[in-house]
Inverse folding.
């Protein structure tokens, strides 16, 4: 079979490495992939958002199945366009992808179907939003409606912060049209859990739970990033919470999308907060999370391609989806300065052992040498029979990679360890 994976980060590298385990796979094209992915797939220089070129490439190269991994091509309708040409693709249609591409859509859906989430108001007029802020409770959370590279959420600890967040989104257009509408929502407290799930629109199968580490620095301080590391499973996702999530959140969401005429196929990501009143939805993503995927897929024992195909042809209930009982830890190695400005172009030295455990995100090949080309450069993942061992092993392996100004957190998994020990 010929496969095409759209995207070019650590998440896509993890997907490709897993898909390669299926012996029916002949060729994997990555569009555009990156210098590290090139070791496992044929990289094609077409942007993930160039949908017409993607469809043409898939047609010309007799691609049997496409995996659309990032949010922007999904929001642009990549799956719809591929399906129009008779090419099956993993991922939601444009209309189902609104669950991520429009926060207003997601919040209204939750309200209509009684799915637990933070209470909220939506605004399309800056004056109305600003006058609401004069009396609302503080802290408060301001969210741009559309996609904003993970930066469209501002947790405001003061009224002044909230006013400047609204002004920057709605008046200064910091995120362009994504900030034309905003959601202002209740501040929730509690540990966060990421649950990625496979769904074919009717059956929903949660994957092993995980925990992201979004802040740049140790102790969960510093700027928000795309994620500096992950662990799985998440200790806060107890069997009791898992049961509540299935009954109160996962199934109702799948049913709600179906009722709204936009049945969801693919990976639906539930960003949850375990509050004192139970689990609540913080965000939905219409795709695999990054770097959650880098700990979740290494623990998947079943065939990923078979599961992905089952989500498109509605046979998920008859398809085995099994996860190992082990734990996993992924440590991201970033360019110093990330998520603010950073330098690129440094050669990466990496041992063969570490490379085998790595998912490359921001690197390109120059004359056969891997050099840094992005903020998050790579993730190093270890799996082991306990979380403690997985963390120790990931940090041992991470010593096998170096480049100028490399930066990593030194406490990935520390919070989860404290929770297990409680
Ligand atoms: P998001 O980009 O939607 O994942 O939001 C980024 C981060 O902001 C989340 O991981 C939470 O830590 C935080 N956040 C989002 N919504 C809320 C909320 N209603 N209450 C408290 N924190 C929130
Ligand atoms: N790690 C969170 C995300 O992929 O959006």
């Amino acid at each position: 079979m010929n496969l095409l994976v759209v995207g070019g980060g650590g998440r896509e590298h993890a997907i490709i490495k897993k898909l390669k385990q299926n012996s029916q796979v002949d060729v994997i094209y990555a569009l555009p992939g990156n210098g590290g992915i090139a070791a496992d797939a044929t990289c094609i220089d077409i942007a993930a958002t160039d949908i017409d070129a993607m469809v043409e490439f898939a047609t010309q190269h007799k691609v049997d199945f496409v995996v659309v991994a990032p949010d922007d091509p999904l929001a642009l309708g990549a799956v719809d366009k591929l399906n129009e040409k008779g090419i099956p693709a993993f991922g939601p249609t444009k209309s189902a992808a609104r669950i991520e591409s429009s926060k207003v859509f997601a919040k209204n859906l939750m309200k209509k179907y009684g799915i637990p989430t933070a209470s909220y108001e939506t605004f399309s007029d800056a004056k109305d939003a600003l006058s609401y802020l004069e009396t609302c409770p503080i802290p408060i959370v301001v969210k741009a409606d559309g996609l904003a590279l993970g930066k469209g959420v501002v947790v405001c600890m003061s009224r002044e912060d909230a006013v400047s967040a609204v002004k920057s989104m709605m008046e200064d257009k910091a995120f362009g049209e994504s900030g034309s509408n905003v959601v202002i929502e209740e501040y929730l407290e509690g540990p966060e859990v990421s649950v990625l799930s496979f769904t074919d629109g009717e059956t929903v199968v949660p994957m092993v739970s995980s925990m992201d580490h979004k802040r740049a620095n140790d102790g969960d301080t510093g700027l928000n990033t795309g994620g500096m590391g992950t662990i799985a499973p998440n200790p806060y996702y107890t069997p009791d919470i898992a049961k509540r999530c299935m009954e109160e959140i996962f199934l109702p969401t799948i049913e709600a999308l179906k009722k709204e005429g936009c049945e969801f196929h693919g990976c639906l990501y539930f960003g949850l907060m375990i509050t004192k009143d139970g689990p609540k939805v913080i965000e939905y993503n219409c795709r695999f999370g990054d770097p959650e995927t880098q700990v979740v897929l290494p623990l998947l024992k079943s065939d990923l391609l078979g599961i992905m195909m089952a989500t498109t042809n509605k046979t998920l209930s008859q398809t085995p989806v099994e996860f190992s009982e082990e734990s996993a830890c992924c440590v991201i190695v970033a360019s110093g300065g990330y998520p603010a400005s950073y330098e690129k172009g440094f050669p990466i030295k990496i041992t063969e052992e570490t490379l085998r455990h790595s998912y490359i995100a921001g690197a390109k090949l120059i004359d056969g040498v891997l050099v840094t080309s992005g903020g998050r450069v790579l993730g190093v993942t270890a799996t082991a029979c306990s979380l403690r061992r997985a963390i120790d092993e990931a940090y041992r392996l991470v010593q096998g990679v170096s480049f100028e100004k490399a930066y990593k957190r030194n406490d990935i998994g520390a919070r989860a360890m404290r929770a297990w020990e409680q």
Q: What stands out?
A: Residues 2-91 form a domain with the Rossmann fold fold (CATH 3.40.50.20). The CA atoms of residues 209 and 238 lie 10 Å apart. Residues 118, 141, 150, 153, 155, 185-188, 192, 214, 271, 282-283 surround adenosine monophosphate (ligand 1) (CB under 6 Å).
